[in-house]
From TrEMBL:
Major localization class: membrane
PANTHER family assigned: SMR FAMILY PROTON-DEPENDENT DRUG EFFLUX TRANSPORTER SUGE, SPERMIDINE EXPORT PROTEIN MDTJ
Subcellular location: Cell inner membrane; Cell membrane
Organism: Halomonas mongoliensis
Protein family (similarity comment): Belongs to the drug/metabolite transporter (DMT) superfamily. Small multidrug resistance (SMR) (TC 2.A.7.1) family.
Chain segments annotated as transmembrane: 34-52, 59-80, 92-113
InterPro entries from the UniProt entry: EmrE-like, Small_drug/metabolite_transptr, Small_multidrug_res
Subunit structure: Forms a complex with MdtI.
Protein's UniProt name: Spermidine export protein MdtJ
Mode of membrane association: Multi-pass membrane protein
Pfam families, A to Z: Multi_Drug_Res
Keyword Cell membrane: yes
Lineage: Bacteria, Pseudomonadati, Pseudomonadota, Gammaproteobacteria, Oceanospirillales
This protein's UniProt keywords: Cell inner membrane, Cell membrane, Membrane, Transmembrane, Transmembrane helix
């Protein structure tokens, strides 16, 4: 299960890298930047595919999108000097609360049940 969460973390980090590269491209351009952006986003989907083999797809996708949005917003504030309104900050806070609630509500099957279904 730890490997699945590692894949999900890699999916989030490569998504954030790809989107950040996209932002840089709008400022500086260049064909190499596009290649990096496409590679990061494609790799993100590959890692997400590995993660959903052990993590419920709804939970994995919510974490991937939610944490990705939070990290991209943080990078936008720190690196790209973006400014957020109070409403946007509240919305981002709600995203984080939603992620915590989804993750806390995930039901983990006992190991015996997982082994039994894996044998089929």
């Amino acid at each position: 299960m730890l490997l699945a969460w590692t894949f999900l973390l890699l999916a989030i980090l490569t998504e954030v890298s790809g989107v950040s590269t996209m932002n840089l491209l709008s400022q500086e351009g260049g064909p190499l930047g596009y290649l990096v952006m496409y590679a990061c986003i494609a790799l993100s989907y590959v890692f997400l595919g590995f993660a959903v083999k052990r993590i419920a797809v709804g939970v994995a996708f919510a974490m991937w999108e939610g944490v990705g949005i939070a990290l991209i917003t943080a990078l936008s504030l720190l690196v790209f000097d973006s400014v957020l309104s109070t409403q946007e900050l509240v919305g981002l806070g709600l995203v984080v609360v939603g992620i915590v609630m989804i993750n806390a509500g995930e039901v983990h099957a006992p190991a015996a049940v997982e082994e039994h279904t894996a044998c089929r």
